[in-house]
């Protein structure tokens, strides 16, 4: 029932409320302040605060843009390191910070977020999603594991098969995606073993060896190709940005150096795992739970390869061949010469990914191998981070900050290369334990370029150890998302990672320090001056 409206002209139109209790009001204000002034809020303010301090009080012997670039760099890295703002949003901040601080125009910054390297990433990610969608990775894993299982069971050989499969998958897709795909395959094999108090020491050790092997193999496999990890792509993009006249690093060029490097580190990993966790004597304890018949049953459950799987595999194989043959050697030019150097690795990557949206899958009428809904899982955070890295590299160079850094580091001119290369790798591999691999690379590589100029050596002699060292995040679960994937299985603890990761990190630094001035000098042509 409606209430009658009063005829009194002094009657208020809206209901009156009593004044709030001042004590309650102050408590509400205090509660609001507490919820606002959190550690996260302080971290958000830290970036602009440091930027302001540098702009007001730091004087550099160079143009104003160089000081502004330093201030923006500190702002961006403060947000990256503290994760005060989501990483993809921080990665987009150069798009507004650079124009506002007079470092670069809006168009120039935007170009860094879409070039041939980004196109390479987009195309390869779409193909990786197709492989994942059609379960091709699982079929491959089961086939290779059956091949290495042995009869009777040979645990070190089986471990080698699981790790080798993971490394191979990681060569063609992002490390985290490879870990997420392969960990269920590995733990599916381990589910055959007893758990709890019934689990023997030999079984427990083998379970730890398999999980550690998978997370470390994803990192090692990613080193061998350009598309395996964002770090390699950041390095290649920065090389192209700083030295546009120099020969770009192609997919095949990187592979000829990265694959032997990854192979040696992989063998070191296998030896370390076998020594610590997996001896031949453990075969008796394991053979009762795992045999070829179990693997064969899982493979039969997948059924024969369908047309769609065969076509995705064919497209992926064709893409790898095109990547490897675009630029072969000076004497044997690749297919890239037919297009006068206009086509890049990203060109064929997007072209082959496009075929997936044209070829029918023969499951339902009108349905193609891929549709855009299946691409919603594209890791845009990685793509934006790559763009930010390239934008920062351009900003450091064009603002004049690079020249100022080189003058400040001129004392390194007398340091021999053989002393500084392992140190660079060690520093980079230490920083990466506490921040992301891509952030470490974006921070370290521009600095190494200036150090190389001062030492009068080819920049790649320091850039490559710095970038690959950033992938040696082997000690802590938080070092990389791949480590977290393994840690959440419950099979490993932090001491397992430290016990295995420390000798692996030392082996990786030793192998890299040996290969870079030898094989690296031949593959990258580091004995010749950079244009």
UniProtKB/TrEMBL annotation:
Keywords linked to the UniProt accession: Membrane, Transmembrane, Transmembrane helix
Coiled-coil ranges per UniProt: none
Cellular compartment(s): Membrane
Membrane topology term: Multi-pass membrane protein
Transmembrane residue ranges: 37-57, 64-81, 117-137, 157-190, 210-234, 254-278, 299-323, 343-359, 380-402, 414-436, 457-476, 506-525
UniProt keyword annotation of Transmembrane helix present: yes
Protein name per the record: Tonoplast dicarboxylate transporter-like isoform X1
Organism whose genome encodes this protein: Prunus avium (Cherry)
């Amino acid at each position: 029932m409606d209430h009658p409206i009063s005829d009194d002209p002094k009657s208020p139109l809206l209901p009156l409320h009593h004044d709030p209790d001042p004590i309650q009001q102050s408590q509400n204000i205090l509660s609001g302040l507490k919820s606002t002034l959190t550690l996260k809020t302080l971290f958000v303010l830290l970036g602009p605060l440091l930027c302001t301090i540098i702009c007001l009080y730091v004087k550099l012997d160079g143009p104003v843009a160089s000081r502004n670039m330093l201030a923006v760099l500190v702002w961006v890295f403060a947000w990256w390191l503290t994760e005060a703002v989501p990483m993809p949003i921080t990665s987009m901040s150069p798009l507004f910070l650079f124009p506002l601080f007079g470092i670069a125009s809006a168009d120039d910054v935007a170009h860094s977020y879409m070039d041939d390297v980004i196109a390479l990433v987009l195309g390869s990610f779409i193909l990786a999603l197709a492989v994942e969608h059609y379960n091709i990775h699982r079929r491959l894993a089961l086939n290779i594991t059956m091949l290495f299982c042995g009869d009777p069971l040979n645990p070190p050989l089986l471990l080698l098969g699981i790790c080798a499969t993971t490394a191979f998958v990681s060569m063609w897709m992002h490390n985290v995606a490879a870990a997420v795909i392969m960990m269920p395959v590995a733990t599916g094999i381990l589910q055959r073993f007893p758990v709890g108090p019934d689990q023997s020491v030999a079984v427990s050790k083998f379970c730890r060896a398999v999980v550690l092997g998978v997370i470390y193999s994803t990192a090692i496999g990613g080193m061998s190709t350009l598309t395996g990890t964002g770090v390699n792509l950041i390095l290649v993009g920065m090389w192209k940005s700083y030295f546009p006249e120099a020969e770009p690093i192609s997919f095949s060029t990187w592979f000829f150096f990265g694959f032997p490097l990854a192979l040696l580190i992989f063998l070191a990993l296998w030896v370390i795992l076998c020594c610590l966790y997996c001896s031949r004597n453990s075969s008796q304890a394991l053979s009762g739970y795992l045999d070829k018949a179990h693997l064969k049953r899982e493979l039969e459950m997948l059924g024969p390869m369908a047309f769609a799987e065969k076509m995705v595999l064919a497209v992926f194989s064709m893409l790898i061949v095109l990547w490897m043959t675009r630029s072969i050697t000076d004497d044997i030019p690749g297919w890239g010469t037919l297009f006068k150097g206009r086509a890049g690795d990203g060109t064929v990557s997007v072209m082959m990914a496009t075929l997936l949206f044209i070829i029918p899958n023969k499951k339902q009428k009108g349905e193609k191998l891929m549709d855009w809904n299946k691409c919603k899982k594209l890791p845009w955070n990685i793509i934006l981070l790559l763009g930010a890295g390239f934008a920062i590299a351009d900003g450091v160079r064009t603002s004049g900050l690079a020249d100022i850094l080189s003058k400040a580091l001129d004392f390194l001119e007398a340091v021999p290369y053989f002393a500084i290369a392992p140190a660079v790798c060690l520093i980079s591999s230490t920083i990466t334990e506490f921040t992301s691999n891509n952030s470490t690379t974006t921070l370290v590589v521009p600095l190494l370029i200036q150090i190389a100029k001062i030492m009068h050596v080819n920049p790649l002699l320091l850039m490559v150890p710095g970038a690959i060292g950033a992938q040696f995040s082997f000690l802590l679960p938080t070092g990389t998302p791949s480590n977290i994937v393994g840690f959440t299985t419950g099979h490993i603890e932090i001491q397992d990672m430290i016990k295995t990761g420390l000798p692996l990190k030392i082996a990786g630094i030793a192998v890299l320090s040996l290969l870079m001035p030898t094989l690296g000098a031949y593959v990258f042509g580091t004995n010749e001056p950079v244009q």
